[in-house]
């Protein structure tokens, strides 16, 4: 609390040299993070605390009156079968995208980390979807998945098969949304791994080669361990972002059919604005925060322990 | 042989990744009556989808709103972020380290977790459908990333620079503004790209905070347009295509910065 102390010393006897002393002390710089802390407090921490309060009420989202209902919203959450479905979907969106993005991103990075001609063009193409709004990306894939005249069904038609209502089946819609999210953000994982691969000293791989190590052995015992910092960053970011998935779901299925492809985020947005059940929405929001914190922190500490220093 | 397989793989990857955009372009150029497969490009020139969507959805206004909100948010987030990062990077006292951890950990708070109370707060502040509320909220939610990036970068600048400036008679603030701030250009380029993409493409905050037509951004306008014209897919495709052109052009011209910006930002962690 150096700031407060230096402030106190200055109060009442603000003379030139004392002010100068204050601005020469390192503690005076701590004033510089006050705006950031203020914004966090107003727009994140205060709402977070309020959200806990609302989750114990039956507030409908607009009326000034509401009453405390205790743990009713949480009790309802764990008795309603829809909740389990939605939690499962959220985990598929988060962990499924993470798995696909990192496996494919790493494979692409290994392929492009060679002297392949045109690798810059491939990189540009794979990375391009990152700049597209996720909502629009969902619409782009809607044209591929739609029943009537969609790109996939056109292929089935040519092959003489029956068209499929791709997004009409809940579990399939969930996996398709996961794949669309993978398609869009795989480029980020690829770039992270490319940077990580380029940082691995060539001598290590050459030494192993002289010792007669196979390609797979080199990958498993040299590349992968040295890539751990990149893997940590990529996986933790993917998990956090994947569990928050919202826009693509809205544009592809809007949570449907029924509730089959809702994630926690789309479900609570639905409950708040359409269902006017703000108390329950707040409870779901807190559950989502708990899930994201749990997976974010455990994956981070699990992966960090596996990093080695050169 | 191995080389040939690599080229084949790279070629196939490129094709697969281009298909969705190929379909989008084909569809946007078709008339509604065209029943040919969307794999086949039309053999006629038809651009009315673009002109129709432009006039009917007021996409121009939406893109202007996007621009205003993006520019203001990027500017504000850089200043607030860099101010916070300097003391946190340079004076790692126990207290400051705790604040740094708290700031970066804010990254995991999902926007939708705080949706209910945040929406109420913005309503109470009379900020619904205003630029300022949108900019302040977006700035706050992008701050953790920005603080993380700047703190990491400032830590790599030798302390001797600060010390030399202090000996030459600069106070702490002068040292920051004259010596350190000008050195932050490379990381600022990354920050601008990352935040610009996030703000420009935002949907989850705009959906709740921008309710009047006059302040709505492109993703929002398009989502309404899409549900309104669900049976006119060529029109919807044209709208989607138009909305992603500004960023696509920027990407093609500033590719170097987009690529290095994201990779650097992530690897510094």
List the helices and strands and how they pair.
The complex is a heterodimer of chains A (310) and B (269).
Chain A: H1 2-10, H2 16-24, H3 34-54, H4 72-79, H5 81-112, H6 119-127, H7 134-145, H8 151-158, H9 170-198, H10 202-210, H11 215-226, H12 228-243, H13 247-252, H14 264-273, H15 278-304
Chain B: H1 2-28, H2 48-56, H3 59-90, H4 94-105, H5 115-124, H6 131-155, H7 159-167, H8 172-180, H9 185-200, H10 204-209, H11 218-228, H12 233-253, H13 255-267
Short description:
The complex is a heterodimer of chains A (310) and B (269). Chain A is an all-alpha fold and 310 residues long.
Largest interface: A-B, 100 and 93 residues
How many beta-strand runs of chain A?
0
H/E topology pattern of chain A: HHHHHHHHHHHHHHH
Enumerate the spans of chain A where pLDDT stays under 50 for 5 or more consecutive residues: none
Helix content of chain B: over 70%
Instruction: State the end-to-end CA separation of chain A.
Output: 38 Å
CATH class of the largest domain in chain A: Mainly Alpha
The CATH topology assignment of the largest domain in chain B is: MetI-like fold
Helix content of chain A: over 70%
Which CATH class of the largest domain in chain B? Answer: Mainly Alpha
Can you identify the CATH superfamily of the largest domain in chain B? MetI-like
| Percent in strands of chain A | under 5%
Q: Give, in order, the helices and strands of chain B.
A: HHHHHHHHHHHHH
The named CATH superfamily of the largest domain in chain A? MetI-like
Sheet of most strands of chain A: none
Specify the structural class of chain B.
Answer: mainly alpha
